[in-house]
Structures are given as C-alpha cells and as structure tokens.
C-alpha cells in the first residue's frame, strides 16, 4: 500500500531559493515516478485550496494534485507529514518529519530584535519538540542541528541535495557580457553570509589585465551592499528564471561561491553540471557539496580567493580539469537519488 503523506506546500509557488528547488524536485519525482509508493496531498494556508491546484500542479510538473487546507490536516488521517521548509509551521496531527537545511537563525551573529529572533527560531523549536525524525543536507548541518536544537543524532538523517539529469545533458547558449572578455558568476542574495564582499575585494586584487577585462555578474536579489572597489565592474541581474541562470552558468569563466554558512551549497552542483569551473570557500558544508571537484580558498580571505580565481583564468589545463571533475561530481548527485532516500525515510516512520 502506498504511504499517505501530507506535505507543507505553502511556500511552493514563491520560494525560488534552493529550498524551493529541493521541494519541487522531490514532489515531482514522487508524484510522477513513485505513484505506487506514495499518495501525496499538498497542504496550504489558502481558505479555498482548490483555487491553487492548477498553479501547484505546474510547480510540481504534473497534471493534477490533491490540495487541502493545512488546518484540516489532523482530520485527514495522514500516516506522516513532511515539512520541507526549515521547521514545523502547523500541527499535522500525525508523525512529523522535517527537513532542516541549516540553522542560520541560531548561528547568525547579527543583532536582531528579541521579537524577530523568537519569530525566526520558532519553527525550528517546534521541529525539535514534535518531529519524529529530521532530514538534513550535510554532515555539517547535522552537527549544527545537534548543537543548536539538541536533537539526538539518531533522529537525524543526512540526505545530500542533487541536480536534475537534464541539466547534465543541457547545452544552453552561453551568456555574454558586453564590453568584457569574460565574467565570474555569483549566485545568491547579497546578504552578509553569502560574502559577496570577499569576491569583490578579490577581483580588485587581480592583475590589471585580468581585472579590467573581467566582469562580476551577480544573479539574485540585491540587498544592501557597499560600493564595489574602484576598477571592478559588477553587473546585477536581479532574480531570474532557471533558463536564464543556465545560460549564465554556461558562459561563466568561473563560478565563485564565497559563502560563509550553507546547509549544502546547491549552486555549486548546478555550476558543475553545466561544466563551469567552481571556486569556493572552504566554509561550513561547501566542501561536502563540491567534493574534490572545486578549487577551494580560505573563507573571508580575499588574497586566497584572488589567487584561486587567477589560476582558473590563466591555467587552461587546470580549468578543464575542474570542468571535467565537476561534471562527474554532479552526475553522482541526482535528485532521483535524493527523492528515493527521502521517501524511504518517510516510509520508515510509519
């Protein structure tokens, strides 16, 4: 008999980050390929959930979906409820399994108001109190969950994220940036923990010939950011769709990921899948995502970042090795594998 799973789908239409990619990728596979193993119901906060059914089906890449109000979950008799959004936001009335990608609100050194701090942390606290099992993306995140939430290690399973096999086969038209011989790509919001500042300082340290002919392309929502160093060209794309992002990966001389804190680092795999050399910090979970297929530098060290970028831009053989090893790494990290492992965990808590 297929297991009946209620899924918190409230953010499914709006979350364009890695968490949203994760939820949509797994739901697509369960609803299209694993129909004999799982019966999925999407739970939303909408007063009239049927009105959202068509849009949610499109997000999951299937013809139709069963959508209910999440306030009705306790009477719907699910065998398990899956909460993929970094915490539990409503009572399900059944066994709860939560995916916690990272615990940044607990590790964040930034000062916030006590009320905002409690609001950010509440879903995590609920997960620690009510979840029968926790799934996370990396061993780093598992250690952080144990440290900050006090969940027993035996209640936490590590399931790395993945990429779509179609991405490995894709051949998008490489993007070009007018007036630049090449560009380095940064993907993510310009928040402090993504550390775009280190990349910009590193770009300023490149030899003059490289610096003046290389642009920095920032793909993602623009937040607060200090003025870039003189002589460093920065192009902001804002939020873009997957097709445009693929062209940017494909055209980049290197993808640079200077982040200080990640639960996994999905853009690292996406860049590798499209054959882009990856330069990344050695912080948090990032080496777990990239394995031996990236060129790492010490986090926050602009000199080390500049040296790594310069090597990729000037050593064609090294860059080619990164492209080849990156594609091999990405091929091992599929969404199919992630979906199968996650469904096995959900089925095991019955």
Task: Give a quick precis of the structure.
The protein has 15 helices and 13 strands. By secondary structure, it is an alpha/beta fold.
Please describe the topology of this protein:
Blueprint (H helix, E strand, L loop, with lengths): L2 E6 L9 H15 L5 E7 L8 H8 L5 E4 L3 H4 L3 E4 L11 E5 L4 H4 L6 H17 E6 L2 H11 L6 E3 L6 H5 L12 E6 L8 H9 L3 H6 E6 L13 E6 L3 H10 L2 E4 L8 H8 L4 E4 L4 H5 L4 E3 L4 H13 L1 H17 L2 H14 L2
Parallel strand pairs: 1-2, 1-4, 2-3, 4-5, 5-6, 6-7, 8-9, 8-11, 9-10, 11-12, 12-13
Helix pairs in contact: 1-15, 8-13, 11-14
List unreliable stretches of 5+ residues: none
Helix and strand succession?
Answer: EHEHEHEEHHEHEHEHHEEHEHEHEHHH
Class by alpha and beta content? alpha/beta
Number of helices in the DSSP assignment: 15
Helicity level: 40-55%
Examine the secondary-structure arrangement and name the CATH architecture of the largest domain: 3-Layer(aba) Sandwich
Ends distance: 12 Å
* Number of separate structural domains: 2
Alpha-carbon Rg, integer: 21 Å
The proportion of strand residues reads 15-25%
Main sheet: strands, sense, barrel = 7 strands, parallel
Query: Which strands sit side by side, in order, in the main sheet?
Result: 3-2-1-4-5-6-7
Report the CATH topology name of the largest domain: Rossmann fold
CATH classification class of the largest domain: Alpha Beta
Tell me the total number of β-strands: 13
Any idea what the shape is?
Answer: globular
CATH homologous superfamily title of the largest domain: Glycogen Phosphorylase B
Quick check: average pLDDT? Answer: 95
């Amino acid at each position: 008999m297929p297991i009946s799973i209620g899924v918190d789908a409230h953010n499914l239409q709006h979350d364009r980050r890695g968490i949203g990619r994760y939820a949509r990728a797994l739901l697509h596979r369960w609803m299209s390929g694993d129909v004999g193993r799982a019966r999925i119901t999407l739970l939303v906060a909408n007063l009239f959930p049927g009105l959202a059914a068509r849009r949610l089906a499109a997000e999951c890449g299937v013809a139709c979906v069963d959508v209910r109000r999440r306030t009705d979950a306790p009477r719907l008799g699910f065998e398990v409820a899956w909460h993929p959004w970094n915490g539990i936001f409503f009572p399900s009335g059944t066994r709860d399994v939560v995916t916690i990608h990272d615990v940044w609100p607990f590790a964040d050194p930034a000062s916030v108001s006590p009320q905002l701090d409690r609001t950010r942390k509440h879903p995590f606290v609920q997960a620690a109190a009510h979840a029968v099992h926790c799934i996370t993306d990396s061993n780093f995140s598992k250690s952080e969950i144990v440290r900050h939430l006090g969940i027993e290690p035996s209640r936490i399973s590590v399931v790395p994220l993945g990429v779509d096999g179609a991405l490995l086969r894709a051949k998008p038209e490489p993007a070009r940036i007018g007036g630049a011989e090449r560009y380095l790509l940064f993907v993510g919001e310009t928040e402090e923990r993504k550390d775009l500042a280190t990349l910009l300082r590193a770009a300023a340290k490149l030899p003059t010939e490289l610096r003046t002919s290389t642009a920095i392309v920032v793909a993602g929502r623009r937040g607060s950011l200090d003025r870039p160093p003189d002589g460093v060209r920065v192009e902001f794309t804002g939020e873009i769709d997957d097709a445009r992002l693929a062209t940017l990966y494909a055209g980049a001389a290197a993808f640079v990921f200077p982040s200080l804190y990640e639960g996994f680092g999905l853009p690292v795999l996406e860049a590798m899948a499209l054959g882009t050399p990856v330069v990344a910090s050695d912080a948090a979970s990032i080496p777990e995502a990239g394995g031996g297929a990236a060129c790492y530098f010490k986090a926050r060290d602009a000199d080390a970042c500049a040296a790594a970028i310069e090597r990729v831009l000037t050593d064609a053989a090294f860059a080619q090795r990164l492209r080849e090893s990156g594609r091999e790494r990405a091929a091992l990290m599929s969404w199919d594998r992630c979906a199968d492992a996650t469904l096995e965990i959900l089925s095991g808590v019955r």
